[in-house]
Amino acid sequence: MLRYILMVTILAALTGCMTQAERAEAAKAEVDDMIKVYGPACEKLGFSKDTDPWRECILHSRAHDDERYRIRPTTTTCFGHRGFYNCTTY
Q1: pTM attached to this predicted model
Q2: Are 45 and 56 in contact (CB under 8 A)?
Q3: Positive or negative: CA dihedral 47, 39, 64, 28
C-alpha cells in the first residue's frame, strides 16, 4: 500500500509537468492498478465483473483505503507523576 501511495504522490507532483496524453496514460495506469488490487475482492463479494456495481465496489474500496491510510494529525496528552503516567492520543 505504501508503494501505491508513493506512486500517487509522484504522479501528483509530476502532473504539472505532463502533457495531456501523459496525464491520460497515468490515469489509465491508476485505474488498471485499482482493478488489479480491488477487483478480485469485489468479485469474491458477489459482484459480476465489468458491471456498474462491480466498478462502484472498486471505487468504494479505494476510497475506504484512502480514508484509512490518510495521515491525520494527532494530539497526545499525558498526566501523572514519577513513572505513573496515563497518556491519551486523539
Answers
A1: 0.54
A2: no
A3: negative
